[in-house]
Design brief:
Protein name: DUF4474 domain-containing protein
Distance between the termini: 106 Å
Strand content: 25-35%
Number of strands: 18
Pfam families: DUF4474
């Protein structure tokens, strides 16, 4: 009986798989990529906007937008340490120095980012003290502001072969190529940064030499420094050690193989991704959010809330203070029927609890008990608004 049940289940699974393959084959034959590449790229960039990135078809790379949401996240050492947990295995080279009363960080990265090979240059600074809490001790840097961005570029090579080049005035210059698999050791980056003055340039170069860079590993031309980045000189995060790295890289390699096999019919990245969007939406979404996704920063939300003070309380309307006691109270005559003038004051309910019964409209000089109407900075009565007569009104209209 058990064997019959197992055979039935196996048969159903095989039948379901065959049905899936038949449907896939039919849909695959019907699919035809968009011929208008500009329209195709525009649609892809709309899908990428929430991820903070865009695609450049000319260079076949994904890159970070200047005002992407990641800019609000800043930088701290925990990001590099937590990267392998999100399938990012890279070499990190943080260069720290002081300039104009701030501590600066210019960091270089190169490596495997999920199913992409890429590189980064980031600029950050802070004028605050180090953070010391359970789970983290060290500086937290803010992303560079617009006026602090620097002209930068880098060329990325793998085993000496040129892959791509990026250049822009940016705070976070990045480039990632989809479907490429690389070991960080096989990558080299020639990073070029132009500084606003010699003071900042010298501070950066001194920091490089303190890390152990030799004269043949960097070059200076006027206010521009070029760094030949192959092997990092700074201590790497423990999480980037060989064992965790090997496990993550196996996953990355398999995902790259899967992507290339599924899209093997197309050579153009735009066609590949459009095909995935139609045929395998889950894999398409995986590609869209494989680079510094929100889930990466969510892992450090506890630290970001601590740094930024958590959720700010909603502002509370301050209580209106009682006005000072007037030197002389009103004369006690009834307010006659009349038409309000622009100089008259419409008194609101007394916030100090005087419980007066002065009526709706009174001249600005009128006082009710301990509260003078003129003390309230309220809009005047509308013209032709009747005041009405109040038998209990102790105020007079002076």
């Amino acid at each position: 009986m058990i064997k019959i049940v197992i055979l039935c289940i196996a048969g159903a699974l095989i039948l379901g798989l065959l049905l899936f393959l038949i449907i896939w084959k039919i849909r695959s034959r019907r699919f035809s990529p968009t011929k208008d590449k500009k329209s195709q790229q525009s649609e892809l960039n709309q899908d990428l906007e929430n991820a903070g990135f865009a695609y450049d078809g000319r260079r076949d790379i994904f890159y970070s937008r200047i005002n992407c949401w990641q800019r609000e996240m800043g930088y701290c050492r925990l990001y590099d340490e937590g990267a392998p947990g999100f399938n990012m295995v890279m070499h990190c080279e943080p260069v720290t120095f002081s300039y104009k009363n701030k501590r600066w960080l210019i960091e270089l990265w190169k490596g495997q980012y999920g199913i992409t090979t890429g590189g980064e240059i980031g600029i950050y600074n802070t004028d605050k003290e180090d953070i010391s809490v359970k789970g983290f001790s060290g500086p937290y840097y803010e992303s560079a502001q617009d006026q602090e961005m620097l002209p930068m570029s880098f060329k990325l090579h793998r085993n000496g072969k040129f892959l791509f080049k990026c250049n822009a005035t940016h705070w976070w210059l990045t480039g990632f190529r989809l479907g490429e698999f690389s070991d960080p050791d096989s990558l080299s980056m020639d990073a070029r940064i132009k500084f606003p003055d010699t003071e900042m340039l010298n501070a950066f170069v001194n920091a490089l030499t303190n890390l152990g860079y030799q004269s043949h590993e960097y070059a200076i031309r006027r206010r521009t420094v070029t760094v030949h980045y192959t092997i990092p000189h700074s201590e790497q995060p423990v999480t980037q050690d060989n064992l965790p790295k090997a496990v993550v890289q196996t996953t990355n390699h398999n995902n790259c193989i899967l992507y290339n096999q599924v899209t093997h019919k197309y050579k153009n990245t735009l066609d590949k991704l459009e095909y995935l969007k139609n045929m395998a939406p889950e894999l398409y979404e995986f590609c869209m959010h494989s680079l510094y996704a929100r889930s990466f920063y969510d892992a450090f939300s506890w630290l970001l809330e601590l740094i930024h003070g958590g959720h700010k309380p909603h502002p509370v309307q301050p209580r209106v203070p009682c006005p000072p006691r007037p030197p002389k109270s009103c004369g006690g005559r009834r307010l006659p029927n009349r038409i309000c003038t622009p100089q008259d004051c419409c008194c609101p309910p007394d916030p100090c609890g005087c419980r007066n019964s002065c009526g709706v409209c009174r001249p600005s000089s009128c006082c009710c008990g301990d509260t003078c109407c003129g003390r309230y900075h309220k809009p005047p009565c509308r013209l032709n608004e009747g005041c009405g007569e109040n038998q209990n009104n102790p105020c007079d209209g002076r």
